[in-house]
User: Fold this.
Amino acid sequence: MIVFNQVQKSYQVDGRAIPALHPTDMTIENGEVFGIVGHSGAGKSTLVRLINLLEPPTGGDILIDEENITHYSAAELRAFRRKVGMIFQHFNLLSSKTVSDNIAFPMKLAGIYSKAEIRDRVQELLDRVGLTDHATKYPSQLSGGQKQRVGIARALACRPTILLCDEATSALDPQTTQSVLRLLSEINKELGLTIVLITHEMDVVRRVCDRVAVMDAGRVVEMGPVSEVFLHPKHPTTRDFVFESESIDSQERQEDLQKASGRILRLTFKGESTYQPLLGSVARASGVDFSILSGRIDHIKDTPYGQLTLSLVGGDLEVAMTALKAADVHVEVLR
Amino acid sequence: MEALLSNVDWPEIGIASWDTLVMVGMSLLFSVLAGLPIGVLLFLTGKRQLLEQPLAYGVLSFVVNVLRSVPFIILLIVMIPFTVMLIGTSLGVAGAIPPLVAGGAPFFARLVETSLREVDRGIIEATQAMGANVRQIIFGALLPEALPGIIAGITVTAITLVSYAAMSGVIGGGGLGDLAIRFGYQRFQTDVMVITVALLVIFVQVLQMAGDRLVLYFSRK
Assistant:
């Protein structure tokens, strides 16, 4: 468990303290995939680097599995960092080492593994990330997705309990992003690893994260389960992110709503209710006519969801709303 | 042909070539041995680096700059008392080596500093995140990543030392430069001058080619 207790960070610039992270409380459970989303400069890079103390905090305490790491000595800190893997946007592989040697590097640095152990572990990891045929290549001979796979294998080498991902898919094309995210999900499930992932793409959060924190100007402005934050965003920054990922222009949205007649409702289906033929039966039962103004149907991690904005005309609105609520649909009245 | 090169004493040229080779070789060796750690220290103590240490960097940088700003011909003369103290003479091949190192080492140190700065900061960060200490970061990541740049630096330093070594002829340093000055210049023996210059050109070409080959061999980018 990663616990932030009033953790803050500021940088000294020309004698003045510029805050990068305002005092923050946060808890990340063991085994979950925790997303941190924010625009560049929002402080998410700082936040993730506080977890392995690449950036020491200027205040507050960070507890990992109930141990306060903020007071670690240099040697304790180095031992601790071996238990925290990290992958990067630009991979940060050593160009002078082969794929195998890159993966073996953290084990060699640790100095507690035998040659045979290292060789076996490297082989196992190469298989794990699907790069067995590329063992003797140099990073420059690999594609972006392959490089990130090497990065992941390297981060896993010393069997960490936490994996930090710093914009790990931001330099990759959509297809490669998907395969890297799938790999991260697998690792999370199979190894029970805690993953902390920072990104500026809500889509990445939607695909792999269990919970998410939204950051803006050095503060966590919204935090909660992905389905909650994603389907019912409260803070303006969060809304921007959600709409951005759905390519919805909020201006356009407003105009669409103004043109529609009758009441406007937003229905959110989650899980099983997504598959129910609900709208038709509700419309028949209540005599309400509906037209769909906008909608999205997709998955949040493994859960299917649908969100529809409808305008309703005629019939008995009360009956319709009761029937929808009874079927476990979240109903918001927009107008 | 005989008449054209009448002044050229081939055995003398052979000895002078060998002397130049020894001067450059030995001074390059010591320049690298001294310059590499100085360059690494310059890098590490520099601004926003691992062991940021403004005072240490300032002092080190100042000394390097002083040695680099003194024209080599002056450095040769200024160093004479120190050279005599160090190895008993300021003449011949041995006497030329201390001033050559004094000129070559700070030059090489700066080249090392520059090539270390070109290593992606992300690689240092990644290595730190793996729990490496400063020594492991230097030897495990920084130096291997900067190796092609450092080899290119050694090549440039070697070539600079060839020209410095030729200059040392002025204070009795021996080698091809000495030959060119005493025979080619002072006795107006143009043929000797041409031969020595030609040999120096060939020497520099060979060094550059060998250096380029090595850089290419170690480059994985």
